[in-house]
Amino acid sequence: MISLVLRRLGAGIAVLLCVTVLTFVLLYSSSGSIARNILGDQATDEAVAAKEVALGLDQPLLTRLGDWFAHAAQGDFGRSWFTNEPVVGSILGRLPVTFAMVITSILLIALVATVLGMVAAVRRGWVDRVVQVAAVVGNAVPGFIIGIVLVLTLAINAGWFPAISAISPGARLGVWITSLTLPVLALVVNGVGGTAQQIRSAFIKQLELDYVRTLRSRGISEREVLFRHVLRSAAPAGLTVLSLQFISLLGGVVIIESLFAIPGMGSLAVNATARADLPVVMGVVVYTVLIVIVVNLLVDILNGWLNPKVRVS
Amino acid sequence: MKSRTTAAAALAATAALALAACSAGSDDNGSTGGDSAGGATLTLGILGEPTSWDPAQAHVGHALQPYQAVYDSLILREPDGTLSPMLATQWEWTDDARTVLTMDLRTDVTFSDGAAFDADAVVANITHFQEDNGPQANQAASLEEVVAVDEDTVEFTLSRPDASFEYFLSQALGLMGSPEALGTDDMDTLPVGTGPYVMDGGQSIPGSQYVMTARDGYWGADLQKWDQITLRVLVDSAARANAVSAGEVDAVLLDATTYDQGEQSGYTLLEYPTDWSGMMLFDREGVLNPALADVRVRQAINYAFDRQALLDQVAGGFGEVTSQVFGPDSSAYLPELDDYYAYDPDKARELLAEAGYADGLTITMPLLAPNFETLTAFVVQQLGDVGITVETTAVTQQEYLDVLRAGKYPMAVFNLFQGPTSVAYTQLLATGAAYNPFATTTPEIDAAAEAINAGGDDADSAAQDLNRYITENAWFVPWYRPSQLYFYDADKVQVEAQIQMAVPSIYNYTPAS
Predict the structure, then answer these.
(1) Per-residue pLDDT tens digits for B358-415
(2) Per-residue pLDDT tens for B341-359?
(3) Does residue A157 belong to the interface with chain B, where contact is any CB pair within 8 Å?
(4) Does A266 touch chain B if contact means CB atoms closer than 8 Å?
(5) Which of B54, B239, B248 faces A259 most closely, judged by CB atoms?
(6) Which of B267, B194, B201, B204 lies closest to B231 in space, CA to CA?
(7) What is the number of helices (H) and of strands (E) in chain B?
(8) CB-based contact A160 B30, cutoff 8 Å
(9) At CA B248, angle to CA B247 and CA B251, rounded to 5?
(10) Which uninterrupted H or E stretch holds A114?
(11) In chain B, whose CA is at the least distance from the CA of A45?
């Protein structure tokens, strides 16, 4: 198990390095006109040139890359080109909101999708068909459309939830919950479909295997067969789907956070990308890749725990 | 087995987090939260995050508003554009050439960190503004020297007459930050000014919301009308419209696409123009495209546009069509020039034929995606109708300004602020102007500019001559002045429009009684 974790960790670090270097080269190799964007249309050429020097844009790409890594290795991701805010500070300030939203969503998706997938696989018939149709629809409608519908009905018409986030530093838990309910709902509706279908397939596959028949023939109760044996055997497939779902949730929050004006990583990424605030974009990329690597690692560990075969393979 | 316990612990921890979040919800009955009861509080939606809070990095238009909450300016610009005393009690040009401005200052003002406001503080701020290379650094372009004459008098010496200079002292150039804080990194995230409000750093989240509380002992009671102002950053236009529909902001700027939501919400609409939309014909000397050197070709382009159709379809009909680049609030404005180029494709074809382009011609233009596709499609179609083929090259937002300034295209679609005459001149027509990349000028323009900057009795008529000249010579292709669609909750707040500013000044909001 330890060697599995170490191997995955090594691979994760390699991925992180590759993504970071690639992103840096792609972003910074076309950053010539950013100084003009920061200074605006009235800036003179001299002012723009001075700004380029101040931002280090006059240095060769390799020098800048080395410089960035030297600082990043010490946890210093520089400062925003537009607001001069430290990048690490603005990311850490926003992570809790995004995390609360993504983690709650993934847990709800796991719960709802497992129940739906299980019911559909065991009952089959019309229940199965309803679940499948609902799954396809839920998966096909973009998250922001679901978000808009939720805002119109539950926030604007019913007035039960705020239409834009009211989360501020030190906001009460109640404010967090009311502010995040609709965004989480939008993400969950969007994510449940695909996951439920995968879990259903994994379940059906297990139910058709010989060991299930053997268990049943021994007179073990259906409940025990399903929850103790089938669920555990189908879980790795479900977990893998969930880890993929987690990654697509990180993409989904980008749009949802803008729609609800939530002060999270997604809106930070959107704003930074729109104005080419490269240090912030780099910081967001690094943190996101780190999160994805950690989640994958956790999933691997969980899989190893559930299925001993994974540990030796 | 160690891994099993770690994984279980991790699982339990996440589950506990989610459970805690769920269970705590039961004692909160879905209140919308956020509103502090009682007291005069104002919540404004703003369009973007302020760049650094350092006053030298302040911007104009809607981007100036947040700075006004925490920084006073030397001169106050009234809603109608009149300049009034603020930190400066009075000022006058003390030489005949209008290059020396002497200014008296208030003596009862302190910064929120306790530093005194005096002539030295003004010198420190202006010097810092010049050195800090902010987005409006050009506001100090004509300034040669600023000196403290005595404790409450400063003297500005300009290298040339500049009719915009007093106006600039009511904008970014005039914002006064604490000399103790200027140039420090802290100043970028926490403003320290003499303004009516101070930022509550604990309640503010950069890029999301800024909470400003009224400052005790502020010198100008008339300017401080609220106990607290919250500025919510709402970049997404759907989020702004939703905020209005749900009544979560007291005032915000919407656009033609979200107008309906604003209207249905019962908010009051404040509609006024600040920009002009249209095309810049940069290449009036025919450097890139010889055809554009012919005034008949430029006039033909102007006659080729059905401006009303454009306004209706692109801006939802909110605005006024025009053929001049100067706005109704500038001294150069002439009402009769608004319909100078009425839609006349036949006349456009005639003019092109006269100029020797009966068989048509081709002009290239940058296409800014994702902002100007619709407008560009209109240009291609309308000019195509009279025989002008328009070839476009896609240019990103980051490159657009650079590409225009570098003179790579003979013309471009643009949306630009209509400032006071001298400001518009500096932006559009001066040989160093951002939107005059080929540095074209004529004796008529130079003479008018000199008279405008000299500021005498002839300034206004010179401004109008200038306007008539560039309209008749078709230096630009203005289409319309789009309206600002500013919605506010009249039960809570009264709002007055601010001339030539995309959103009202922070002083223009009064609690509804």
Answers:
(1) 999 999 999 998 788 889 999 999 999 999 999 999 988 888 888 898 899 999 999 9
(2) 999 999 999 999 999 999 9
(3) no
(4) no
(5) B239
(6) B204
(7) 15, 20
(8) yes
(9) 80
(10) helix A87-123
(11) B405
